[in-house]
Amino acid sequence: MLNEDGTRMDGRRPDELRKIEIEAGVVPVADGSARVQWGTNLAIAAVYGPMEAHPRKISRQDRCVLDVRYNMAPFSVTDRIRPGFNRRSREIGKVTANALESVVQLELYPRSKIRVEIEIMCAEAGTRCVGLTAASVALADAGIPMTDMVVSVASGRVNGVVVLDLNKEEDNYGDADLPMGILPNSGELVFLQMDGDLSPEDFQEAWDYNMGAAKEIHEIMVAALAARYGGDA
Ligand code: CDP
Question: For a pocket test of ligand 1, which of 171, 172, 194 has the largest count of ligand atoms closer than 8 A to its C-beta?
């Protein structure tokens, strides 16, 4: 999985991200939206609301609720994915909602909901991070007040070496994966999952890679909003 000179199969250094391109406002009928091309991943996020919370049972007297859906398109991977939600997509929707609830100023919209739809068009590892990052930009594009934008990125270990932003092969055959959701301004953590085992030292290295990359990705997110709205967004 690693070349003799320490580079990875796709030529990246261990601490190098895949290429990331972000565009805000790609779904004209939505209140906010974003497209994130991250390596060969492609995600679109669309935000609708705030609107009255329906069904009534999800409504909260004192705050808004986030209704987040993550879905992989049937054509997003080579083996066709059965349309509709499954355990994995529900879990990712839930952890994404939890992460976003840490930053959206929910108390401003009692008895309301904001719908966040994340559609993965092409999936090559790290799609929960790509989707969460896209959703953050879409919420900002919709003008939803937030204390910060969540930046999400994963690091992991391949052949005993900690690497940033695993690609598909590294994700499939690597030893561990550590996706995180980070608030770039404060360095706070709002989401963390771990697949596989990491020693305390490797965990720290993966953590540091993610924290460093979050700043880099945040700049791309801000630039996408600035390109749409002008100034420094
Ligand atoms: O995408 P992410 O790394 O957040 O989640 P994962 O469950 O670790 O999936 C890793 C990759 O496996 C995805 O990005 C897809 O490329 C692939 N996958 C798939 O081919 N079929 C599925 N039903 C789920 C995932």
Answer: 171
- At 64 the three-state DSSP class reads coil
Best residue among 42, 71, 76, 77 to mutate for probing ligand 1's pocket (most ligand atoms within 8 Å of CB) is 77
User: Residue 27 CA to chain centroid, in angstroms?
Assistant: 18
User: In which band, very low, low, confident or very high, does the pLDDT at 48 lie, cut at 50, 70 and 90?
Assistant: very high
Give the number of the atom of ligand 1 that is nearest the alpha carbon of residue 179: 4
pLDDT score of 233 = 54
- Superfamily classification of domain 20-229: GHMP Kinase, N-terminal domain (3.30.230.70)
pLDDT digits (tens, 9 = 90+) for 186-214: 999 999 999 999 999 999 999 999 999 99
Beta strands 176-183; 151-158: pairing state: antiparallel
Q: Taking the domains of the chain in order of start, what are their residue ranges?
A: 20-229
Q: How far apart are CA 27 and CA 145, in angstroms?
A: 20
The reported pLDDT for the residue numbered 55 is 87
Which residue has 């002008």 as its token pair? 230
Q: Which helix or strand (DSSP H or E) is residue 138 part of?
A: helix 127-141
Q: Is the pTM of this model over 0.85?
A: yes
